[in-house]
């Protein structure tokens, strides 16, 4: 069964820095909080490894504080057999009206004929899992997102915690998030093709957008006045930014060309 999606949260930042799979951790600052996360990315048959898959991670520190800059976030690739490993610190619980269980965010983009996913890894035994999670829409109750920590100490008494977190990707295209899964079940989503115009090579991705946004796009396609083409926020996985209608590049009611505030994310959309 594919790894279930989970809430993206407010602290995701596109284009994080590279993260070494065995990065050094300061023993003085994070003593007794070291954590090695290991896992494997597989296809939905649970046997076929997905080599060189991109994985993005971000998390809070041991006190539950998020750094909105570049600390405790980054990306890396699986090896040729689909395995990954990185060293970090055990995240702490943080408070938003109540407490969230300790977790690490994962994002695997759509690649190699498989759907991407935004998900979270939780720790078994956390008292704030499930019903005690202040984020009631989150999937902290899902046992397939829980990991068990094991501790290993060296001869001088320096200890590290280890967890194993496998990731199963469904075949297909697009990105699964908690929000898109809910909207899709309610039949409030429509499907589009997205092209990153300035990527090299040009990449197509099949994504889902809320129907309300799609209806707005269809209306705006016929509005020639730029002052009545408002900004719309799309639910498109990693591209959760505000986009404005740039100009019509092709004729037809189903073709749209948008330009974001980030020039590298101009994209052409075609509705099925």
UniProtKB/TrEMBL annotation:
Signal peptide: none
Pfam families hit by this protein: Dioxygenase_C
Keywords: Dioxygenase, Oxidoreductase
MF (Gene Ontology): ferric iron binding; oxidoreductase activity, acting on single donors with incorporation of molecular oxygen, incorporation of two atoms of oxygen
Keyword Oxidoreductase: yes
SUPFAM superfamilies: Aromatic compound dioxygenase (SSF49482)
All copies of domain Intradiol ring-cleavage dioxygenases, residue ranges: 29-164
InterPro entries xrefs: Intradiol_dOase_C, Intradiol_dOase_core, Intradiol_RC_Dioxygenase
Family: Belongs to the intradiol ring-cleavage dioxygenase family.
Stored PANTHER family: DIOXYGENASE, PUTATIVE (AFU_ORTHOLOGUE AFUA_2G02910)-RELATED, INTRADIOL RING-CLEAVAGE DIOXYGENASES DOMAIN-CONTAINING PROTEIN
Name of the molecule in the record: Intradiol ring-cleavage dioxygenases domain-containing protein
Organism: Pinctada imbricata (Atlantic pearl-oyster)
